[in-house]
Amino acid sequence: AQKVTQAQTEISVVEKEDVTLDCVYETRDTTYYLFWYKQPPSGELVFLIRRNSFDEQNEISGRYSWNFQKSTSSFNFTITASQVVDSAVYFCALRGGNSGGSNYKLTFGKGTLLTVNP
Amino acid sequence: NAGVTQTPKFQVLKTGQSMTLQCAQDMNHEYMSWYRQDPGMGLRLIHYSVGAGITDQGEVPNGYNVSRSTTEDFPLRLLSAAPSQTSVYFCASSSEWSGNTIYFGEGSWLTVV
Lengths: 118, 113
Known about the structure:
The complex is a heterodimer of chains A (118) and B (113).
Chain A: E1 3-5, E2 10-14, E3 19-21, E4 24-26, E5 32-39, E6 46-52, E7 59-61, E8 64-69, E9 74-79, E10 88-96, E11 106-108, E12 112-117
Parallel strand pairs in A: 2-12
Antiparallel strand pairs in A: 1-4, 3-9, 5-6, 5-10, 7-8, 8-9, 10-11, 10-12
Chain B: E1 4-7, E2 10-13, E3 19-25, E4 31-38, E5 42-51, E6 54-57, E7 64-66, E8 76-78, E9 87-94, E10 103-104, E11 108-112
Parallel strand pairs in B: 2-11
Antiparallel strand pairs in B: 1-3, 3-8, 4-5, 4-9, 5-6, 7-8, 9-10, 9-11
């Protein structure tokens, strides 16, 4: 069975602070994919990043960066110099990649509500 | 640039009524799925499809039916709505050739009274 744990239910920061959202996953698949999605107050799910299990390079996109560590089964997300517009619920998700017909289902964490105060 | 389109966006039903949530995608994705989002629960998979004519159950399928007669459409049917089905519903699609990134519709807010 697959599992994604986002231990932080809510985080509140002041604008311009850096913030890291934690994600720990469990899977028996040797190939898998990890995702981060943003859900702003308007409710839609916005895709942020996909990481393949065989690519452990960290990635930076503007103020966003992701730290993937297979040794600790973690895929953490850092926002540098946070802004009010970053306020949202952030979901980490896992998709298995082994054969078996169920490879295209996402297992979600319960989400972290990030509030950035001015 | 439609992507995944869900209708309706908001719906109020009475207990026992039936309804269909529509989902269409214009990206020629073979994989489609329905999730529900409840407070504190994240998103949970209801049903999914790996191609036209093929559907399967996800984590929480009870009370829902699906069909996939075309690649583009994947409707979700509630045959006899119950208050426990009050939730936000998301349709999603993906494809191997699109790098397996899963794209979501804008969500459908359903209230059963």
